[in-house]
Each structure stands twice: as structure tokens, then as C-alpha cells.
Amino acid sequence: MAETVAPSGTTSTTHHLLTSIEPLLREWLPRQRWFAGKGRPVTGFTPVAVTELLPPDGRLGLYHLLVRVHQPSALGAPAHVGDCYQLLIGVREALPPWLAPALIGHVEDGPLAGRTVYEALYDPRPAEVLLEALRSRARIGGLRFDRDPHQEIGDGLVPRLMTAEQSNSSVVYGDTFILKLLRRVVPGVNPDLEIPLALAREGCARVPAPTAWLRAEAPGEPEEPYVLAVLQPYVTGATDGWELALRELAGGGDFTDEARALGRATAEVHTALARALPTVTLGHAQLRQLVDGMTERLTAALQAVPALRPYEAGLRSAFEALDGLAAEGQTWTAQRVHGDLHLGQCLRAPSGDWSLIDFEGEPARPLAERRMPQPPVRDIAGMLRSFDYAAHSADPVDPDWAHTCRSAYCAGYAEVTGRDPRTDPVLLRAYETDKAVYEVVYEARHRPDWLAVPLSAVRRLAASEPTLARETRP
After folding, report:
1. What pLDDT sits at residue 468?
2. Both 127 and 256 in a single domain?
3. 48: how many CB neighbours lie within 10 A of its CB?
4. 63 and 172 both lie in a single domain
5. Domain identity same for 310 and 189
6. What is the SS3 assignment for 240?
7. 187, 372, 382, 435 from 361: Cα distances, Å
8. Whether residues 258 and 371 fall in one domain
9. HEC string of 183-218?
10. Are the CB atoms for 78 and 44 separated by under 8 Å?
11. Cβ–Cβ under 8 Å, residues 194 and 213
12. What is the reported pTM?
């Protein structure tokens, strides 16, 4: 078994505890939906911080862990210390049947010998401990629970774990609040807390204002604190945009009004973000860097997915056209954006109002990159691609539905900003192309049956710019 290294400030008891549960974690962690290192074995752990939230002396114990995971970087390469994960480990003498899905394993030695450890978020009592710590603004070890003093957190809110998430975990408290726990964490300012707080200061109602949040200061680490969790109001009865779009498609319903309303909601968020956080002007030098990144991603994709190669020239022309406009002196404004916008990141309340959620960005991207100002069209391109995916999920495929929704969305955006994204077709085409190329690689690796969806977009985007302009004209 690989040795678990104790960090500065970790007690001997904690070190032995981690050593004793490591074999169980090595088997359990790769099976979790939110674990990003699938396909490579876990060879060990380095603890970053371990905090006892409930002592395991009675019926229940609870530990909060931040651990770095050791995995080989490539076939035959030595193991390296990689991503840091947040774990909540419950301890019981034995699990009742209703907690069977949460089982991690039975500990054979160490301070927890003879006991059972499990994923604590399945258990209401540990979830209540987290909410009470947020309510009381507790300080436990390196954990810092904090909240907005102007928002109340009531008593008696029954917790339940949401089981549909993939990259993180969420607990709903009595249909009043939802606590999102980030699983793969890095030190620094996380946009999933930063942006909603900034929008709340601007009075933007399109994004639920954070009620409370959890940070951690790791012993012996000079970096900024880790943002670990955010508590926000729960939109009761809300339906996410992806589910709603598929429902309308299946029933032959018209989604045009909803797409237009989504465009308005996106524009309102962008407008508020431009007021709340700094904007920058992108000239040729800055656009050159963006174009270089797009071109590099295309080059890598061409190597990974041969089906892209017939469209190489047309795809490169999308990026070259953008660079050409910048070289002629055209500039663009960049600002903070959502970063990973699609139908699944939008909630429609029973009132008909739309909200945008999950501002974490793409978790696989470095934090500094996720916090960089971008042209707002990056979010718009993501949503346009999402309409395309929804249309291809219908049986039969309905490309006219996607075209109508794309047009309505852009028109709704223009109603708020006064500028239709389609009036800047070169920039829009470049960002849509970059997104479609990413999708091709993802589908080829993870869902080959879906590869035809982004490839159909690639064929369209690889066409000449005048053709693209005709296709997107309302």
C-alpha cells in the first residue's frame, strides 16, 4: 500500500486514521460520478486537511477530508500527486439498510477499527451538522463557515441528497435552500461564489444570491483558502432548461418563447456582470492569444478524432477570419461570463422566470483561466450548441426546431443589450467552432453514439462565412 503522508499540523491520530481507511478509499473513490480521474488507478493519497466534525465516540462520527489523489500520469509513468478532493466521511458501528448505497467499507485497523465508514451526505444528521455550522458561522479547525447576515437560515429544514449531479454534490434543505459541495477543489477565488456575490450586490435577480458558504485554510499551505461549498435559495418547482426543452420536443410543443426569454435572462446577467466586475478591451495581441488557443485545440482534436480531418481547412478559416479582423484594428470587449452555459445550467420557475446557475465554469480548466474576462459571445455560443444537442435528442431529429430556438435566443438577447450576437458573425462562428471541436473530442472519447451531433455542426461551421451568415439571419 502506498504511504499516506501527513501534512503539517496533522495529528498522529489523524495520520493513522487516514492510513487505515486508505485501502477503502482507493476502491471507492474511482466509482464516484464526480471523480475526474477515471481510467487510471488510485495509488495513494496525500492529506491536505482533516477535520473532526463529530467525534466517533457515540453512535455517529463525522470527518471532513481534503485529500490529494495519487494517480499515474500516463501508461507506465510514475504516480504523481494530482487533484484535491473534498470528502465527508461518516462513521457508524454498522449501517442501517437505508444507508447501504453510501457504504465505503469496514475498517480493519487503526482508530476506527471494527467500524463502518460511508459517504456522509446520504445521512440527514451529518447534513444537519453542516447547515448548523453555516447558521452559527462556526470555526472548526481550518474550516470557516460563513453566511450573509441579512439572510436567515431557519430550523427544522429536512435535508435530502440530490442524486442526479455529476461533477459535484448537492443537498436540498426542506425545499428552502440547496447546498452545493464542490468535489474537486483548488485554492483561490472560486467563480461559483464570486460571481453570484457580485451579481447580488448589483441586484440581479436572475441568479440566486448566496446565503452562506464554506472555505478551508489548509495547514502549512501558503495559497489562498479553498472554496468548498455554497448555500443558495432553492427554486421550488423549477425545471432545468434541458429537461423542459426535451419535454416540449417530445410533445411537439413550441419552445420559441422560452428561448427568447432565455436570451433576455442571459443578457441581463451579462449586463450586470459588466457593471459589477472589470471589463477589458481585446485588441490584436489579446485576440491573437485567444485564436492561438483555439487553433491548438483544433490541432490536438484532429490528431485524436480522424473524422474531423475532412473539415480542417474550413475550421481553421473560422479562427483565421477572427485574427484577420483583429489585425485590421477591430476590438472587442471582454468581461466575466458564465463560462459553461447550456440549457442544463438554466432553471425555469413555475412563475416562468429563468435563472442561471453553476458559475464554476469547466472544472477541468485552471482556476485562473476560468476567471479570465471573455467576450460574452462565449456563453452565447454554448447555448446555441445546447439547442442543437436538444434537437438531435428528438426522434426524429428536428433541425428546424434548433434553428428557430437559436434565432429566438439571439433576438431575446438583443432586446436587452440592443445588439444581436449574429451581427458579429466572425466572432460567433469562431466561438461556436471552438465549442463544437471540443464536443467532437468529448463524444469520441465518452459517448461515440453522440459523435454525429457535433459533427453535423462541424460541417456547417466549416462552410464559408457568407453561408454561415445566411444560416443565422433571423
Report:
1. 39
2. no
3. 23
4. yes
5. no
6. strand
7. 15, 11, 12, 14
8. yes
9. CEECECCCHHHHHHHHHHHCCCCCCCCCCEEEEECC
10. no
11. no
12. 0.89
